[in-house]
Design brief:
About 45% of the residues lie in helices and about 15% in strands. By secondary structure, the protein is an alpha/beta fold. The protein is elongated and about 85 Å long.
């Protein structure tokens, strides 16, 4: 006896079992479909007995309407980004949409992934990685596909955007350190440029220069904990020249704290004051108690999902830009420990 591939159950099979038309099966699985409760229950019972599942992808391709949404993201190994994506997926599901997550590595092109999503006729796309090219954005406009960019740059007239105020972030880091008594300042930021992370570091440097304070830059390989731990080797050699450092991400800051404690027996905040950015969960752990700036992932996602839903309902509405403010969080790595 040979194993034969199991035949897929179709809506025709369900209609035959339930003794109804195929269109009634379709209405039974469509929210708000015109069908009586009795008929719906008959269809659902037949579907359960047969093991039938709706092929939402095929339905979207046939009707040119879809309840699929795309999420394009990078750096999912960072706590902030993974939390952001998790909240986004949950929020879309709560509104009746089914998210498709595509991740971008450094060597991959966001344009290629966007093209894949366009082929699936998704209802909209949220991008939290590199900004799509103007060509892809124009294609989204041609297809009237909603596009929301989170922390992707200053070109706010190209798509709906949600982003932090990077100028405020840099200035707030300066204020947190100087009000805590630090005056010989440094900044740690990754080599690869990005709108939000590089932007906040540049704003910090500009604020220092505007106040007549020289600032030492330490360039890390990435935004990660390991990169912070590595670059802290150079920072440790300069401890006699600095007493305050702004790390452009919390993960960088945590790596810096651990390396300086291990290799230089540095005390925080007595020997060095440190401020991070993002307020990831680990920043508040007992071994770190990092002073930082809170970038509210939930606030960002709710704003982005609202923008996309509004765009789905009204494709010709004016572009929306949501500018998020950061909140200072004082813990144990600065002398000032109160908000």
């Amino acid at each position: 006896m040979t194993d034969e591939p199991r035949k897929s159950v179709t809506s025709f099979d369900v209609a035959r079992r339930a003794g109804v038309s195929r269109s009634m099966v379709s209405r039974a699985f469509t929210e708000g479909g015109a069908i009586s409760d009795k008929s719906r229950q008959k269809v659902l019972k037949a579907a359960e007995e047969l093991g039938y599942r709706v092929n939402f992808l095929a339905r979207g391709l046939q009707t040119r309407q879809s309840n699929l949404v795309g999420i394009v993201a990078s750096s999912l190994d960072t706590p902030f980004r993974s939390r952001q994506v998790k909240i986004a997926a949950q929020e879309f599901i709560s509104h009746g949409y089914r998210p498709i997550l595509l991740t971008v590595d450094a060597h991959e092109s966001v344009e290629q992934l966007m093209s894949v999503l366009l082929n699936y006729n998704v209802a909209g796309v949220m991008v939290t990685s590199a900004t799509p090219s103007s060509k892809i954005i124009q294609e989204c406009r041609r297809l009237r596909m909603p596009l929301v960019l989170i922390n992707r740059g200053t070109n706010q007239d190209i798509a709906d955007t949600v982003q932090i105020d990077v100028q405020q972030a840099g200035e707030l880091a300066y204020t947190m350190l100087t009000r805590s008594g630090a005056g010989r300042l440094a900044v740690v930021h990754p080599q690869a440029p990005s709108y939000s992370v590089t932007g906040r570091a540049r704003a910090f440097i500009e604020k220092c220069h505007a106040q007549g304070i020289e600032v030492t830059e330490f360039i890390s390989a990435s935004q990660s904990y390991a990169a912070g731990y590595d670059v802290a080797g150079n920072l440790g050699l300069s401890l006699d020249q600095i007493n305050g450092v702004f790390c452009s991400t919390d993960l960088l800051a945590l790596g810096v704290l651990d390396r300086l404690r291990a290799d230089w027996n540095t005390r925080f905040p007595e020997d060095l004051q440190v401020v991070g950015c993002d307020d990831i969960e680990q920043a508040g752990w007992g071994s770190y108690q990092l002073s930082t700036m809170r970038q509210d992932a939930e606030e960002q996602v709710l704003a982005a999902v609202t923008q996309m839903l509004d765009r789905i309902e009204n494709p010709d509405a004016p572009i929306q830009n949501y500018n998020q403010k950061l909140t200072p969080i004082f813990r144990q790595t600065t002398m000032n420990r109160h908000d």
